[in-house]
Amino acid sequence: MAMTGGGGQGAVPKINVTPLIDVLLVLLIIFMVISPLKPSRFEAKVPAEPKDQQDVNVKPNPLTLVVSINRDDRKIALNNDVVGTVDDPSPLTQKLNEIFTQRTNNGVFREGTNQVEKTIFIKSPKSVRYGDVVKVIDAAKQAGAEPIGLQIDDLSQ
Amino acid sequence: MGMEIGGASEYNSEINVTPMVDVMLVLLIIFMIVTPLLQQGVSVNLPRDMISPDPDPDIAKDTSVVISIPDNSNFYIGKEQFPLDALGEKIRRLMENKPPDKRIVYIKSGVDVDYGRVVQAIDTIRKQDIDKIGLVADRKKGGQQPQNK
């Protein structure tokens, strides 16, 4: 190895470090980009455990929006109207956007507050992949649904 | 500063990069070693490329409770595995001293896990009087900004 090829008298034995630095810088940049993946989450609420009382006086709320997922044909339903599928949930986002805009214009508020009612419930059979459920939550959240409730009682298989 | 002290007639105007390379290499090695250690808990195939989850730095904190469900048969808190019936007790103990607004349990579940398993975990959490759940998901780069409430 080394400098025998140099014919001159003043052959200086210097290593060319420039490519090394290049590689190192690129590696450093790659690490810097990868590492600060900020963790994020969807906040969901769970309704309280149902009590065994028979005489609970539950007033049905006409503003409640329930998004349900059909296990067999992978369709999403919003209060029984089919809006998109798990693979393409964008119609759900659109529909929710429409509803929320309408409610904002008409001043439909959550009971006892001056916030527009945007509560939504997600109901899915137990054998659906978790990833699909999260996709639907994502679609609902994009329309500004808040809070998102997970209905976890009396789910079908 | 500078090279005035050198009395020689030829000035060497090259920067000596060797110390810099040394430092860089050491930094690189440190990063390479530390990165896997920083990762807490078991590795889970999280839902990716989600558009609207809210960033929450609390997830990575040591004090927050994160349940990992990597597959259909196991529940983990941190790196420790718990059967479903021991999970509730553990959560209750971890949550005991938390102020009400911090009472949130994070769930890291793999995408291929059945929703029913996740529901079992949520049901256990609910029995400890916790009604807030954080479903951890990876945010797509350049996704939409969190909306103002």
Can you describe what's shown?
The complex is a heterodimer of chains A (157) and B (149). With 157 residues, chain A is α/β, with parallel strands linked by helices. Chain A contains three helices and six strands. The mean pLDDT of chain A is 80. Chain B has 149 residues and is α/β, with parallel strands linked by helices. Chain B has a domain at 57-135: 2-Layer Sandwich (Nucleotidyltransferase, domain 5). Chain B is 30% helix and 17% strand. Chain B is built from three helices and six strands; from the N terminus they run αββββαβαβ. Chain B has helices spanning 18-38, 84-95, 115-126, and strands spanning 54-55, 65-69, 75-77, 80-82, 104-109, 132-137. At the A-B interface, α1, β1 and α3 of A face α1, β1, β5, α3 and β6 of B.
CATH level 1 name of the domain at 57-135 in chain B: Alpha Beta
Gross morphology of chain A is elongated
Strand arrangement within the widest β-sheet of chain A reads 1-6-5-2-3-4
- Report the radius of gyration of chain A as a whole number of Å: 29 Å
Distance from N terminus to C terminus of chain B (CA atoms, Å) equals 57 Å
CATH architecture verdict of the domain at 44-50 and 61-150 in chain A: 2-Layer Sandwich
Report low-confidence residues of chain B grouped into runs of 5 or more.
none
Compute the number of strand runs of chain B: 6
**Helix segment count of chain A?**
3
Count of DSSP strands of chain A: 6
The residue-averaged pLDDT of chain A reads 80
SS field, number of helical segments of chain B: 3
